[in-house]
Structure formats: structure tokens, C-alpha cells
Amino acid sequence: xxxxxxxxxxxxxxxxxxxxxxxxxxxxxxxxxxxxxxxxxxxxxxxxxxxxxxxxxxxxxxxxxxxxxxxxxxxxxxxxxxxxxxxxxxxxxxxxxxxxxxxxxxxxxxxxxxxxxxxxxxxxxxxxxxxxxxxxxxxxxxxxxxxxxxxxxxxxxxxxxxxxxxxxxxxxxxxxxxxxxxxxxxxxxxxxxxxxxxxxxxxxxxxxxxxxxxxxxxxxxxxxxxxxxxxx
Length: 232
Fold this sequence. Notes:
- The chain has helices spanning about 10, 45-55, 75-90, 90-100, 115-130, and strands at about 1-5, 25-30, 35, 135-140, 155-165, 170-175, 185-190, 200, 210-215.
- By secondary structure, the chain is an alpha+beta fold.
- Strands 1, 4, 5, 6, 7, 8 and 9 form a seven-stranded antiparallel sheet that branches. A two-stranded antiparallel ribbon has the order 2-3.
């Protein structure tokens, strides 16, 4: 069993849901004018997970009164977007999602390990080490089996802060940006047969989890999160 003492999504997570307006993630100045890239309406889950890890590393909690998403172009919005791109570790991070989307869930006689094996045998030790050291662990969860790169957006990012191994069952406690202020969001699975297809049960019921991997993280100053409005 491992848990980060005192960490609770209801206290340390962002208090707004991962639901954003259809505005560009980035605005790039060009000789032809400013061009918008991406859309926040697709979600900023990775940026929110990283931002919460940043707050914890700085010994801070999110503004308690903030239950609506920061305004576009505000320092808080720009910070979350920048952390989203940090969480992707371009281009390798996106390639990792795509690789996992095209793996079997079980091991084959010949070929790479399946997503169940990779999650239980390769990724869980890293998660345990991070949490045992007192550091929340960002996770990329793979929710779809597809060779279509356009389906990459169906995957999700969350932040693990605790785990238990009770007999054959492992439970991972997570902050999910789609479910703010909930301390009961967990992933549970049987860890005893990693070579077979493992059922990763997501407690909210809104994700079919094929497997998950830890995401490399380095802390940044979260002070922009406290500036949620656009300067006039």
C-alpha cells in the first residue's frame, strides 16, 4: 500500500471540470497574421494533471473559489495549455499512445508484450516508486484500439496519488480532470495474470481502459494558475 499523505483531489485538484470553449490552444504569429492551432474544446486533461502535480510540488493548493475554467488567453489558461504540450513530450509521447493503441491487450507467442503486461509489469513499479517517494504520478490511459491517428484524442490523462495491493487486486487512486473534487475515482484490476487480457475497471464508468503508462514529469512554477482572468 502506498499513498501520498494528505493528498486529496477535493483539496489539491483543480476545482473546475475539463470542459473548455472552442478556442485555439495556441496562437502563432506569422507574416500572414495570427494562426490558431488546436482547440481547447478537445480537452486539456494532460495540462490539468501536470498543473495539479505542480501545485503539490510547490506546497500549494488551487484557488478554492475557482469552479469555472480560466478565461482564454489568461495566464492560467496559457499555463495549462503549455503543460498540456509538456505532457505530450512531442513527438515521442504521442507516438507512445499510438503504439499502445495498436498493441494487443494480451501477449502473443511472437511479438511485443500486450498492454496488460506492460501496464502491470513495466509501468506499475514506476508508479509505486513515484508515490512512495511522495510524488503524484501522471498517467496516460489508453482507451481505444485503433490504427487511425485521428483517434488519439480518445485517450486521457490523469494523476495517480495512491495505490493498494490487496491479494490479487490492485487499486490505483487518481485525480481525474473530468471529475473534479472527487476523492473516489480509482482504477482496479487483477495483477496476477499480466500475460492475459486484464480488465482495468474505471470507477466512473466513462472510460474503457486498455492499459496505462507513466508520463515523465518535471515541476514548474504554478503561480500563473492564480491569474484566471484576461488582463484588460
